Structures are given as structure tokens and as C-alpha cells.
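Running low. Any example?
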Amino acid sequence: MNLSKPHNGIRIVCLDAWRGLAALMVVLVHVIGPALLGPYPQLRNKLLYRSVTFGNYGVQIFFVVSGLCVVQAALKSLERPAPVAGFLLARVRRIYPPYMIVSVLAVAMSGTAAYLVGKNILPGSSIAAERLFARPAIDYASSVFMLQRVFHVTPLLPVFWTLCYEVAFYGLVAATLLAAVGFRRRLLVLDLCHAITIASSIALLVSPDHVPFPLDLWPEFGLGVIALDILMLRRAAGLYVLASTLVLQGIYAWKHFNDGVEYKGSLGTAALVAMVFCLSLLAARRFDTAIAGWPPVRLLGYIGGFSYSLYLSHWLVIGVVSQLMKKIYAINADTYWISALVQVIAAVAVSRVFYTMAEQPFLQSRTLAPRSKMLFPRQLTSTLPRPRAGYAKAA
């Protein structure tokens, strides 16, 4: 194709629905998982409960979507002055405010729960037992900068481990942006991301135990970049990289299919889910608008609009609701579905309010920058399509 001609970006209407599905998968596994491993092991014999544990792989959907959306946002930033700084600032504004608010709430709730347990008002509390209010200083410092994986620190909340990878992914994409600016080649962003995907996939096959963070999960992110390349540019290079990645990751999935913990998932299955999801995005592209009109998809799309808030806050919400349900209702194995349903509904409702108060205001803010000082002149910016604004949201 002639890359000297300007192109319009694409918009996947169902992308928010995928986000919503991924978020609900994670919520469900955190609601059902503790019951299967704890007080109601007999529920493992029921297919409905056991199948919910597949929700662990909602994270892979988030990573693929993130790769697609974040790199498109990076390409968009090349149309503006200070593209690297602008890209990083947008990422910080996107993820940090709600993350920091939830972190502070978690510490406060842990302290409050510990006080209530000490006064025998609560019979027990998992978040009180975590003693988030009495962590070493390195824990708080690494949490602020999302470097828990680097310093081998346990995140304040279990779901925060994925954000360590997200931030690391952003850093690597920013490095590709810097190279694109230096060489004045916009496609270099995609090409370097593809190179990292192939290199990390090979490394995972050759020596999986020695692949450093975050490259151990980069292929899942990279599959989203490949999907972006194919859908937006239809380059032969994107197809070649897709075929190579599918072969490498397919072998990895086969070798590590059973490497995992019960109800936690396996590395091989995670790789397989990421590949299948990437192929699904490509295959369903032509039916995207029609599928988006289905009522269940529209509901998932609505939830996907605040999926990040749901992902961040649901752990705290389901903990509180679970305690309340134990006090007001005689929960047992046969009636646990009632508690589970209430926990999920409460998590969605509270996260919608949290989104309005703690996330949306920062998304609506804009950095004022004069377009007259664009880094790339028009004849250079026309070499890549300009993504539509509605498609540039990060996972």
C-alpha cells in the first residue's frame, strides 16, 4: 500500500465490550475463587462454579487490548509537540489518579478493619490480616511508582500486579517513540514493538525462567500491536510477525499448558487465550458494528466504559459486601450464589460511582499545546493514519 497517502484510523466498536467482559471475568473469579478454596470446597463439583475460575484469563484480554490501544495512542502523539513527554503524561493521567485513590482507601480500610477485629466487632478480616497500614517504607515507595515487581514487593492489592506490567509496557513503547523521533520514521514504533515481540517469544522458548520482567508477558501485549498493524495498515510485515508469533507462542503454550496452580491458571493457557483473542479481533472486524448492537454486547460495552475503575476497586467492595452478607444472611454452599450475585452487582455499581468521581475528571482534562509547533511536518505525518479519538483509550 502507498504509505505516502493519508489514512483514517479505525475504530473497533466492540472493544469496550471486550473490556467489560474481561473486567467481569476477573471480578467473578475473585468472588467465587475464595469460596472454592475455602469454606465451600464442595462447589468445585459444580460446573458453573468451576468454570468461573477461567476468569483469571481476563487479564490476557486486557493486555492484548492495551497493546492495541496504547500503541495507537503513541502513534497519535507523534502528531503533537513533545510526543514522548505527551504520551507519558497521558498515560500517567490515565492510570495514576484512580490507582492512588484506591491504594489510600485500601490502607485506610485495612487499619479500620484491624481496629474492629481488635474490638471484637468483626470476627475476622482478610484485609485486616494484611496489615497494609504497617508495611515497610519500600513497599509504599514501590507502590507509588508501580515498581513492586522490580523490588519483589507484594502489591497492596492482588490485582495491582498487572499495573506493574502496564507501566513497564508504557516505558518500552515510549522508548520506541523516542527512536521514531530520532530517526523521523513513524513506522519504527510498530517495527520495534514487533521486534520485541519476536525476541521475547524466542527467549520464552529457549530459557523461560530467565526472561526478565516485563518481557515475560510482552508477547501478550505485542499481539495487540500486531492486530493494530494489520487492521489499520494491512502491512505484509504485520502478517509475517503474526504468523511467527503464533508459531512461537503456540509451541510455548503446548510446553507450559499444565504449568500452573489449581484455580489460578497456567502459563500455557494464558498464552493460548491471548492468541485466540487476537485472532478473534481480526476475524470479527467486518461484523464489528452488527455485533455491537446486540443487547448483551451493549451492556458489556457500558461496563467496559468504566472497566478500569471496576478492576481497581472491586477487591475492596466484594470484601465489604461479603462481610455484610455473612451478618444479614445465613450463607452456606447452597445459597452462596446469592452472596456472589450481590457482590458482583455491588462491585459494578460502586465502580461506576468511583469512575465518575475519581477517574472521569482526569480523562476529561486536556493538555493545552500549540499545534503550530508540531514535531513532524505534514508531509511526514501523512505517512501513518491518524487514529480516531474514540479508539485511543488504554485498557
